[in-house]
Structure to design on (232 residues):
């Protein structure tokens, strides 16, 4: 047992990890974005590479330096992230969607910078739905490939965080869902994190609050336990 026995449990595995947050342009200088820093995705990539995996990181608007031994593909929008993830997911043993993908994008992108009319109140911005990349990955996954989703949830009047998360796992159809409780600002841009990993078969693994590398290590241990054994 112990860390040394786990050190190379991902040797020979190809993993694709999306990280960061997409930006959906309104005009040449403005976008709709979100607060995802990419740090948890970076930690996942670093730890997977250290444990022997061949890692591709599809990074949406993350400025961090490439983790050692990891190939980084930079993207901006949800459509760019979609194309890159699908291209890289062929032959992957594991695809982890830790990126925050904008649910909607502006219906059109202005070619020139939008100017304000000093007299009138602004128009509303029409939005259209972005494709659900995780659902697409689930629909096209190859035998033995594991698809892992992330969910940042808050409890509300309807249900608590884990109830929302279980419903999301069922809805998405992925193998594992990594759940973050984001009530109260403990996640975005922070060095520490805490998650629960829910599996489609009902298993759940709590990974206690700690540095994002430690949380990443816990997530990979759950993933590795579910990979189809290889006898080569
Ligand atoms: N995701 C995706 N494509 C989208 C939206 C989300 O691939 N267009 C992925 C995320 O990368 C994440 C998972 O789906 O792994 C869950 O994202 P989340 O935003 O929590 O789920 P939604 O179905 O968009 O639900 P919500 O209404 O709560 O935002
Ligand atoms: Ca969403």
């Amino acid at each position: 047992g112990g860390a040394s026995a786990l050190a190379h449990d991902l040797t020979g595995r190809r993993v694709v990890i999306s990280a960061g947050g997409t930006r959906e342009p309104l005009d040449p200088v403005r976008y709709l974005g979100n607060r995802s820093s990419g740090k948890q995705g970076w930690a996942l990539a670093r730890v997977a590479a250290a444990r022997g995996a061949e890692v591709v990181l599809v990074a949406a608007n993350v400025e961090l330096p490439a983790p050692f031994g990891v190939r980084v593909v930079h993207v901006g929008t949800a459509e760019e992230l979609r194309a890159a993830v699908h291209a890289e997911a062929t032959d992957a043993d594991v695809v982890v969607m830790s990126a925050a993908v904008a649910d909607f994008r502006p219906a059109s992108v202005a070619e020139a910078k939008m100017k304000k009319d000093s007299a009138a109140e602004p128009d509303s911005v029409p939005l259209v739905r972005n494709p659900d990349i995780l659902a697409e990955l689930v629909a096209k996954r190859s035998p033995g490939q594991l698809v892992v989703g992330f969910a940042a949830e808050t409890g509300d009047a309807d249900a608590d965080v884990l109830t929302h998360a279980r419903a999301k796992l069922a809805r998405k159809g992925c193998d594992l869902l990594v759940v973050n409780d984001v009530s109260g600002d403990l996640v975005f841009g922070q060095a520490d994190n805490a998650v629960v990993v829910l599996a489609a078969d009902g298993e759940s693994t709590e990974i206690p609050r700690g540095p994002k590398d430690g949380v990443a290590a816990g997530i990979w241990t759950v993933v590795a336990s579910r990979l189809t054994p290889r006898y080569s």
In short: Residues 103 surround calcium ion (ligand 2) (CB under 6 Å). The chain has a mean pLDDT of 93. DSSP finds six helices and twelve strands in the chain. The longest helix spans residues 212-225.
